[in-house]
Amino acid sequence: MAENTFMYAQNLHKIYRKNAITTPVLKGVDMEVAEGEFLSVVGASGSGKSTLMHLLGSLDKPDAGEIYYRGKRIDNLSADKRDHLRNHDFGFIFQFYHLLPELTALENVMIPLMIRSSVFSWLGNGSAARKRATTLMEKVGLGHRMHHLPKELSGGEMQRTAIARALIGNPALLFADEPTGNLDEDTGREIVQLLRELNEIDNVTIIMVTHNLEIARGTHRIIKLVAGHVDLPLQQQPEAFGVVRPESFDNLPEDENYPDETRRQAGI
Known about the structure:
Blueprint: E1 7-18, E2 21-33, E3 38-42, H1 49-56, E4 64-69, E5 72-73, H2 79-88, E6 90-94, H3 105-115, H4 119-139, H5 155-167, E7 173-177, H6 185-202, E8 205-210, H7 213-216, E9 221-226, E10 229-230, H8 260-266
Parallel strand pairs: 3-8, 3-9, 6-7, 7-8
Antiparallel strand pairs: 1-2, 1-4, 4-5, 9-10
Helix pairs in contact: 3-4, 3-5, 4-5, 5-6
């Protein structure tokens, strides 16, 4: 592990259990992420993409292996410390938005700051939080929709709201799990362009899980998961664990784990 590595994971394993049935999902994944990087994790359904993101984001714990963030191990932290890490250092964007239906878009964006505040501190800080939430809603192009309920928003507007919510705590690392999966093609491109701007202008480090290789090609690096392992073309000589550079993705071998539609989108 390089001294300046932002996030590093070594030999990650994850097994899901239900009664007597065990399902290995991750089977020894190594990877690292540099600060300011926009990294894509691609793979077919069931390859372990979302599971990997959940482990890196401290939403779940690995059965084996270690995860380091800014030089400190985080997979063995207590629940309270992992909660603090997610609320202060990490931001999350999900495919299904997860907006609270009874709150306006603006109120949904404010939730992470409400969670980190006591009742008394919120009385003093609430107005500043509302001001920041308003600024973020304008930043994502929803200044005119901030007082609408989620049911009154389009899919793209709900995802933009979710992005603003993910950013309100000034995260150093943004996790995006299939952020375009519920959107039409044009709206998906707009969301990815917004993420690129956050990365390039605000220097937010982003780890994005996607099945869409066309979208992944627009990021700095691509890690491909197959059946719980990092899978690389034989001709690649990666500088770090699991690196596939976008310009080399044309050399990917035929992979039966990818459906025809994904192949068509990626041109492979």
